[in-house]
Amino acid sequence: MKVLKFGGTSVGSVESILSLKRIVEREAQRQPVVVVVSALGGITDQLLSTAQLALSGNETWKDSFDNMVERHHQLIDSVITDNIKHSELYHKVDTLFEQLHSIYFGVFLIHDLSHKTEDTIVSYGERLSSHIVATLVENARWIDARTFIKTERKHNKHVLDSTLTQQLVRDAFSHQHTITLVPGFISQDKDTHETTNLGRGGSDYTASIIAAALDADILEIWTDVNGFMTADPKVIKAAYTIHELSYIEAMELCNFGAKVVYPPTIYPVCVKNIPIQVKNTFDPDGEGTIIKAKIKNDGKPIKGISSIKGTTLINVAGLSMVGVIGVNRRIFTALANHGISVFMVSQASSENSTSIGVREQDADAAVAVLNDEFAKEIETGAMFPMEAQSGLATIAIVGENMRHLPGIAAKLFETLGRSGISVIAFAQGSSETNISVVIEAAYLRKALNVLHDSFFLSEYKVLNLFICGIGTVGGKLIEQIRSQYDELKEHSRLKLNVVGIASSKHAIYNRDGLDLQTYREELQASELSSPQKLCEAVIGMNIFNSVFVDCTASGEIAALYQPLLEHNISVVAANKIAASSPYDEYMRLKQTAVTRGVKFRYETNVGAGLPIIGTINDLRNSGDKILKIEAVLSGTLNFIFNELTADVPFSETVHRAKEEGYSEPDPRIDLSGKDVIRKLVILTREAGYKAEQEEVEKHLFVPDEYFEGSVDEFWKRLPQLDDDFEKRRRTLEQQGERWRFVASMEHGKMKVGLQAVAQSHPFYNLEGSNNIVLLTTERYKAYPMQIQGYGAGADVTAAGVFANIMSIANI
Ligand SMILES: NC(=O)C1=CN([C@@H]2O[C@H](COP(=O)(O)OP(=O)(O)OC[C@H]3O[C@@H](n4cnc5c(N)ncnc54)[C@H](O)[C@@H]3O)[C@@H](O)[C@H]2O)C=CC1
Ligand SMILES: N[C@@H](CC=O)C(=O)O
Q1: Which residues lie in coiled coils (predicted)?
Q2: Number of folded domains that form the chain
Q3: Residue 345 lies in a domain
Q4: pLDDT band at 322, cuts 50/70/90?
Q5: For the chain, does the N or the C end have fewer beta carbons within 10 angstroms?
């Protein structure tokens, strides 16, 4: 025998109610079924709101009432085709509506709405829907749940009298019928015979009570989702259906935000070891979720994450609480006596404060009750007045595999901490199946996302990228991300989500990911932005696993790294300004990244895609010491000196370097040696020395006056240098030498300058825009370590930035 319960969405539309009919009639061919139904979706709320309108003397209650009548009539007209059944059903339904109308009218006239009247009003939803379904389904009998679901009054609430109910259910179903239709939710007070109910969502409970009393083989809950999901799918795009849950896991999840099953439903069937199958009325062949005692171990430490907004923490504190027996008893008794439910408790072992989690709507009452309870202690100063902190949310991670598995709480804290989310209170019972944390509600979305990701509940790890600067490097990076996207998703389970793109004037954002084909047009059509607005937007989106990628040469953008890192956003910079800024600022950035648990990466600052900074770090981390660096670090300058011939004058080579994408946006930065100075300072710092740009000894080759004025003026004046360069070049050629702009560092002392190198020199054959770095270390002394290759250019630099992003993804 089976009990099937259909929720409001399953009876709320023509499509769903016809699906219900098919499901029930198919099942009834195999075994007897009891079908429990909720009110039509939205009707319970409308019954209550109409009552409030009537209570406030608002005439529009009649419109709302008419609307409910109309909705039921329309449904009947659409699904009941037999004329006799149609008119019989109309008669039943209209009789109920007449009664309901009289009750509303009474409320309207006397401006009074007691709990008793409200309970009566709200019962009509299920009474109406169950008659419709009983008529629609072939050969169904209808029984009023109030004849066997009995409640009694305790602590001002209607609670189930289980023993009496169980007996009455058995009596009511002693004659088996193939299909029995029962209105869910409604019940009756065993003493006063007033209509009561089992609480919102109580139809699940009705079904569970019947299933347990009749020892059903299974309880099926038919709803509009495919079962329990790993997290709220409205927040977590990657959430998926959990196919198996233990009773405890299901209880923990639904008790805490996952509204798939009404929490009291689990217990009656769990005691009888009756499985619960959650299924989707709109996808009847889908697998759904099965809840039972013994489930397969899928090896995942947690099964799901649930959450509730609207949490208030009340802090009951005072020095007199330490070691005093009975304080907690008084707290809970006082709250219970006022019908206030506490869903979380956290107390430090020092015992001088207890934090209590209550729902926001109960907060004021709870504070008043507790202030009253401890009035004497508060007056003498032995305890402090209650403090309530609102605007919070509670998250619970749930799973039986957490039991005896060390490190879960550590991972929870680490994951939240790395995302800049502070845990305000924490609770874990000794059953170790639920760990709950209270955080600021504004961080809920981010917290759920990072937790879902880090506990491997997500199919993909997601990295959210903000790309700033879409010139040579940034534009190429976006191209590379676009063409690698599917490969990374499929083979590395990494989703690179570009959630923000900024040019020098505009910025666009989309937390679900921007279209990397059309972003330039989108940017063009977007509002004007500024570095400040960009920073506010990136921080404001408060998005998990975020990385800010700077592909500009802008000082204003480099100045954003500090606030971004402080907000737990990693930074990848092709821009060299920050890493070569005053030493204290550079150290502050690095330190902030460490304390915030995020990354500050800038490998492409030196040698574009060449692994220079990483290698120096690896050498030092393994105990080596960098003694000397000799290098050619400018792709532009090397390219210029290699291109220069009798036919290609100096000014032309500079133009070509720009066109090839080697030079800085402002090529004077390359020609003035500034770019190389920055790079040398960065390398010297990575090598462990406290270096500043002013300390670099310079031997430059373009007179200073060429760097004064605007870039346009510079381009105009540049050909004036051609003759002199050609003269010098010819002399050099005759000597069999080549120019190289060499950077060196020995024991912290830095130097840059133009050198004429002979054929025997390791730098002589350095082709095109290549860079070379010779590292003399304690281990690489006689033969320095040599790193050589393309030192500039869109492809290799973008690839270096990409590699930095991947190192943050850590897959
Ligand atoms: N081109 C190369 O081979 C290498 C470049 N780099 C570094 O990469 C960075 C970018 O270089 P390229 O792409 O070659 O320069 P680029 O001039 O082609 O691109 C820079 C882009 O940044 C944009 N921009 C400027 N200010 C901005 C702001 N406030 N907000 C948003 N965008 C802004 C510019 O409009 C331009 O589109 C530079 O810092 C450079 O030093 C590093 C290694 C190699
Ligand atoms: N302008 C730079 C680009 C790489 O950092 C260079 O020419 O090396």
Answers
A1: none
A2: 4
A3: yes
A4: low
A5: C
Whether 34 maps to a domain, the answer reads yes
Structure tokens at 85: 């059944």
Average pLDDT (662-678) is: 97
Q: Are residues 432 and 467 in the same domain?
A: no
- pLDDT of res. 121: 98
Instruction: Please check whether residue 367 lies inside any domain of the structure.
Output: yes
The 3-class SS string of 198-237 reads CCCCHHHHHHHHHHHHCCCCEEEEEECCCCCECCCCCCCC
pLDDT given at position 459: 78
pLDDT of residue 1: 95
Same domain, 409 and 492: no
Of the pLDDT bands very low, low, confident and very high (cuts 50, 70, 90), residue 455 is confident
804: Cβ below 6 Å to ligand 1? no
- Residues forming a β-bridge with 776: 628
Nearest to 214 by CA among 185, 160, 176: 176
Is the pLDDT score of 258 beyond 70? no
- In the numeric block, the tokens 């990848």 are attached to 572
Q: Containing domain of residue 527, as a range? A: 461-601
Q: Are residues 83 and 214 in the same domain?
A: yes
Nearest residue by C-alpha to atom 41 in ligand 1 = 575
309 is catalytic: no
DSSP per residue, 14-59: HHHHHHHHHHHHHHHTTS-EEEEE-PSTTHHHHHHHHHHHHHTT-T
Share of the chain above pLDDT 90, in %: 85
Angle between helices 14-28 and 61-79 (to 10 degrees): 50
Predicted complex ipTM exceeds 0.95: yes
3 state SS of 382: coil
CA–centroid distance, residue 637 to ligand 2 (Å): 8
Last residue of a domain, one of 184, 201, 224: 224
Q: Would you tell me how many other CB atoms lie within 10 Å of the CB of residue 312? A: 21
Nearest bound ligand to the CA of residue 604: 1
Give a yes or no: residue 271 inside a domain.
Answer: no
Share of the chain above pLDDT 70, in %: 99
636, 678, 681: which to mutate for ligand 2, most atoms within 8 A of CB?
Answer: 636
675 lines ligand 2 (CB under 6 A): yes
Three-state secondary-structure class, residue 726:
helix
Ligand 2 geometric centre to CA of 608 (Å)? 7
- Would you say the pTM of this structure is higher than 0.80? no
Pocket probe for ligand 1: among 523, 549, 552, 769, the residue whose CB has the most ligand atoms within 8 Å is 552
**Does the CB atom of residue 634 touch ligand 2 within 6 A?**
yes
Ligand that lies nearest to the alpha carbon of residue 550, given by its number in the listed order: 1
Q: Is 658 in the pocket of ligand 1 (CB under 6 A)?
A: no
Question: What does residue 317 show for φ and ψ, rounded to 5 degrees?
Answer: -140, 155
Could you tell me where the beta strands, DSSP code E, fall in 456-506? 461-468, 494-502
- Element at 445 (helix H, strand E): helix 444-454
The answer to whether 108 and 12 have CB atoms below 8 angstroms apart is no
Distance CA 131, CA 786 (A): 85
Q: Which of 529, 551, 640, 674 to mutate to test the pocket of ligand 1 (most atoms within 8 A of CB)?
A: 551
Compute the mean pLDDT over every residue in the chain, rounded to the nearest whole number.
94
Q: What is the pLDDT of residues 742-781, one digit of tens each?
A: 999 999 999 999 999 999 999 999 999 999 999 999 999 9
Three-class SS of residue 770?
A: strand
Q: 469: number of CA atoms within 13 Å, CB side? A: 24
Q: Does 255 score more than 90 pLDDT?
A: no
- How far, in Å, is the centroid of ligand 1 from the Cα of 614? 22
CATH number at residue 725: 3.30.360.10
Would the CB of 638 count as within 6 Å of ligand 1? Answer: no
At 339 the pLDDT is: 85
Q: What is the pLDDT of residues 493-525, one digit of tens each?
A: 999 999 999 999 999 999 999 999 999 999 999
Considering the domain architecture, whether residues 548 and 430 belong to the same structural domain is answered as no
Which member of 296, 679, 690, 781 is catalytic?
Answer: 679
